[in-house]
From TrEMBL:
<dbReference type="Pfam" id="PF14559">
    <property type="entry name" value="TPR_19"/>
</dbReference>
<feature type="domain" description="Response regulatory">
    <location>
        <begin position="8"/>
        <end position="127"/>
    </location>
</feature>
<dbReference type="InterPro" id="IPR001789">
    <property type="entry name" value="Sig_transdc_resp-reg_receiver"/>
</dbReference>
<protein>
    <submittedName>
        <fullName>Response regulator</fullName>
    </submittedName>
</protein>
<dbReference type="Pfam" id="PF00072">
    <property type="entry name" value="Response_reg"/>
</dbReference>
<dbReference type="InterPro" id="IPR011990">
    <property type="entry name" value="TPR-like_helical_dom_sf"/>
</dbReference>
<dbReference type="InterPro" id="IPR011006">
    <property type="entry name" value="CheY-like_superfamily"/>
</dbReference>
<dbReference type="InterPro" id="IPR052048">
    <property type="entry name" value="ST_Response_Regulator"/>
</dbReference>
Amino acid sequence: MADLERLNFLIIESNQGMRSQLRSMLNSFGIANVKFAPSAAMAISQLRDRRYDVILSEYNLGDGQDGQHLLEDLRNKEIIPLDTLFIMITGERNYERVMSAAELAPDDYILKPLTPDMLHMRLLRALEKREIFLPVHRLIETGETQQALERCIAMMESHPRHRIDFLRLQAELHAALTQPEQAEAIYREILATKAVPWARLGQAKMLFAKKDYAAAEEILSALVAENSRYVDAYDWLARTREETGRIQEARDVLASAVALSPHRLKRLRHLGNVQLAAGDAADAERTLAEVVRKGKYSDFRDPEDHVHLVQAQLSQGRTAEAQATIRDLESSMDGLASTPVCASLSKALYHTRTGAPELAQAALQDAVQSGAAVSALSIDMKQELVKACLDNHLEAAGSQLVIDILRNAADERTVERTRAILRERGRGDLSNELEERVHAEVRGLISAGADMVKSGNFDGAVREMMAAVQKMPGNPHVLFNAALAVLRHIENRGWNERLAAQARGLIARTRRLDPTNPRLEALSGFMQQLVRKYNPRHGG
């Protein structure tokens, strides 16, 4: 059991009286290391700078923020480690229903009014559970997913009280290992004993991963019908309808989700972009204007939101409003890596709309010459930049951007959308030419590394493939083969912790970019085989 006196606590609470009350309670338990954050934004800033053992967060944080949104941001952005306890304090009597529907739940929640004895007991219980799961969490954080899964299965037998929690974690680990069949089977096992909404959502996500969109939609539609406030289910239902080309239906689902949860920046952004894709420019402008407004005060602000807002305004001929948005982009997003290229692209769109092709071309030249700033763009925004270049007769610049996209394309959907952009502009021939050039480049890089492995030049193979990774950091084929080259080095030259960490990182990146790769399981198995062979934890 952890020694309470040694633990670091962060209290997230806007009410000064409640902050003082919680600190007094913690002090009475011998806990002196207590810090405060009166808002979600300040909490995120502190959590980026320092690791805390326990977070006590009020559910209602004011200004539209709530503790559940904060928890999701902290976990999804990996701002806090798995072993940091997040405990919600709330006066909401229906919070149990909120938590049972949440995809990411806190470690515990305590209803107000709370007493010192209650807080002490719940802290001890949460810390006891943390100690039980700590070995699995440590393996997850070091990228040893398969070992984490094996440990999880073994520990479940000795901790039957936490069986459901271990099963949930097993399902998530199977999903991380791109094993949706096994994950879905575990969710079904959970549902056979306990009808929890999060398990049904998990099952739907695994069906989505297998591209069984009809079955996923059936579950998600039922979840939404049974619990109209299950916002995570709305998000996945919208994604399912997007994947099947039903953009208007996806828009309607997201609009319902935003009506229920209007302060979630990621969800608002998704709605605005779907409205824009569906041709609802006026609605898109209203939504994206709200995204831009909220984003200015968010730790997750993104200059790309301004570009989408400019697109919505220009598509309605609202050029004065677009100009104002561009000025706001340059002033309010100053200092972010992608701001210069987003501003240049926005100006190019504006000049194209207002009939000034020379100015549009000059702005695009500024955009494509921004170097690292272009690399910071999302794939979607790079594709918007390609469109603008081709529409303004800058074929060389557009071609170079296409090559960059294809080099780092993580899925066939990205490739197909890029092809469609060129086809729509009568340049299907250019698409074929550029794709073949990139394929040849990737084949050459992988072949060079493989030849070095065959000749026994394992150091050279690792150098060659890591250089390829630097050139194509988002290409799953390059990442996969780089990981294989590193593992071959370990297999033939012995254990090297630096290389092992490199391999884990490459495998994790490959899995994130190409989760359905059928060879990933074998690559992970090879890694685990080497770990067992050398037993590095015991000096082997």
